[in-house]
Amino acid sequence: MSELQTPQLTKKDFESDQAVRWCPGCGDYAILAQAQKNMPTFGRKREEFVFVSGIGCSSRFPYYMNTYGFHSIHGRAPAIATGVKIANPDLSVWVITGDGDGLSIGGNHFMHSLRRNMDFNILMFNNRIYG
């Protein structure tokens, strides 16, 4: 009996068909490129990844990943990611947030997700603009 082989994914498999709309020279391009490059190394199917974002420049991230994703409201990405993880603990859930979205209005949700020890990743874009 032959064993079913899962095809090896590449960076291209995680690239969406959406035009990336960040300012020329923005560091967000590098973050996106590295995320797309590294997702295949986790050994998961694209359907097992969920990206949840709040607002700001980083919030467009789920559109640029060929995975499941939510573009949520200001500061609430950790709360929504908590619900996603509780509903399906087998998913690899990623919160995408900026310094303003995640540490200002979203600071409380950020802290409580840490307190609850939720099994999801937080990728914070610190563009040092939040004042």
TrEMBL record:
SUPFAM superfamilies: Thiamin diphosphate-binding fold (THDP-binding)
InterPro entries, A to Z: 2-oxoacid:Fd_oxidoreductase, THDP-binding, TPP_enzyme_TPP-bd
Protein name: Thiamine pyrophosphate enzyme TPP-binding domain-containing protein
Ranges for domain Thiamine pyrophosphate enzyme TPP-binding: 55-131
GO molecular function: oxidoreductase activity, acting on the aldehyde or oxo group of donors, iron-sulfur protein as acceptor; thiamine pyrophosphate binding
Keyword annotations: Oxidoreductase
GO biological process: cellular respiration
